[in-house]
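Need residues for this backbone.
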């Protein structure tokens, strides 16, 4: 005999889902947003890419001119997502503002390559003009993330602006119940972060700095310095100075 799902339980989960993807308790907004994003998400070729830039303006917080959005890009709480002019978002990426009090803002000429995830959480993600985020990047904005203009993040880079804490060694590990400690990540202008590097909460990376591939950055990196290793250490200044 097939088990039945209690109606009350289904309704509760349904409204939680509505609030999760729209940021509001509005069935009208849920249907309208879902209709627009579903109809245009899978349109092929360059025409689909351009049409999405036009159509998504009806659900996003704002969108500038000449934006290119490839297929299967997902937006959650889209009214809190703001795109400048000529923004490119690669296929299978996910931009998630998470809450109606959070924000995800991309400046002009920002390029988000395919399969990237930008998740504001309880914080805010701001990416300034001309910055490149390469494939499979993951930005966790719970503590806040700010990236300056004309910077570049390599493939598989992770920016983790909050971490869970386990103060009681005997307590069971329940990720959802663990307290979170957010701390803002700030990356300056003209910074390069190599592939598979991880930037930890509270780190500030100065203008013109370089982070080596695979580095785990737990401390600040001064301007125009090169940092490598696990944990990352400054090895020298750009231009050959030690």
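Answer:
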């Amino acid at each position: 005999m097939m088990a039945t799902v209690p109606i009350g339980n289904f309704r509760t989960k349904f409204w939680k889902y509505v609030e999760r993807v729209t940021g509001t308790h509005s069935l009208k907004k849920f249907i309208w947003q879902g209709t627009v994003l579903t109809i245009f998400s899978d349109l092929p070729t360059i025409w689909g890419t351009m049409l999405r830039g036009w159509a998504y303006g009806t659900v996003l917080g704002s969108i500038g001119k000449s934006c290119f959005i490839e297929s299967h890009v997902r937006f959650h709480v889209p009214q809190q997502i703001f795109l400048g002019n000529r923004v490119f978002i690669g296929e299978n990426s996910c931009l998630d503002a998470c809450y109606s009090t959070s924000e995800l803002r991309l400046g002009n000429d920002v390029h988000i390559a395919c399969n990237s995830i930008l998740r504001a959480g309880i914080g805010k993600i701001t990416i300034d003009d001309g910055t490149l985020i390469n494939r499979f990047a993951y930005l966790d904005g719970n503590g806040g993330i700010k990236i300056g203009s004309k910077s570049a993040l390599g493939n598989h880079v992770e920016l983790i602006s909050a971490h869970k804490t386990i103060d009681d060694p005997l307590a069971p590990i329940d990720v959802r119940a663990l307290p979170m400690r957010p701390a803002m990540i700030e990356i300056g202008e003209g910074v390069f972060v190599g592939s598979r590097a991880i930037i930890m909460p509270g780190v500030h990376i100065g203008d013109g700095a370089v982070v080596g591939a695979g580095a785990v950055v737990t401390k600040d990196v001064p301007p125009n310095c090169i940092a490598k290793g696990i944990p990352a250490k400054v090895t020298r200044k750009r231009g050959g100075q030690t």
